[in-house]
Amino acid sequence: MYRTSWFLRWAVIVGFILFVVGCGSSDKSDIGSQVGGEQSQKVKYKVVAKKDVSFGVTKRFEFRVVVPSSADKAYLENVARDIIDHEIPLNAATFLFYDREEDSESIYTIGKAVWVPYGNWARASEVETGDYSKHQMIVEIKEKTPVLTSEEFAIHDEIKAMLKGPGNPYSENPPAGADIKEWMAKQSTKIAQWEDNAYKTVAKKHNITPQKAKEIYLKVEMR
Length: 223
Fold this sequence. Notes:
single chain, 223 residues, alpha+beta, five-stranded mixed sheet, 5 helices
């Protein structure tokens, strides 16, 4: 399943190459800013990224926040409200919650919340910035996954670092004039070998089988 997802990704890239003149990729969001300031004694959290997604004068922000893995819906709402209390005036905000900072560039692992007027992100421009009289807090908790061990996290992180390491084949594009079908077949083999090498290398280090290493990687990745 994992390799198939990468194959579909290449197919999309190739589609653009065939039907669009010029092919570009969007820049990654800036996730480097750390937000300090005070926080409530009732909740513990760390804002690891704050992204400005404002539109004109409508101030909208996305926060990526690390919280305890035991955090429930009420806890997430308290964290979101605490951040809002210490933030500049805004119109709308999204909060993505994680139990590990290492995962904060991907989909949320604990839950998410939105702070929006009338409960609708699209209506953020209908209120004055900083006027929260019409705002609603909507919180979702992600379905709990099996408890993961520190070793499983370590194995996952080591494999991921290898997969994303220098020379990885995932972002490669076919050379000009290449036979696309032939190139994709070669690329599929190349990626399979790249992944197998990562699983084997990490498996040997942790004295497990490559198949077990792969299972652990996917278990953490898909949680």
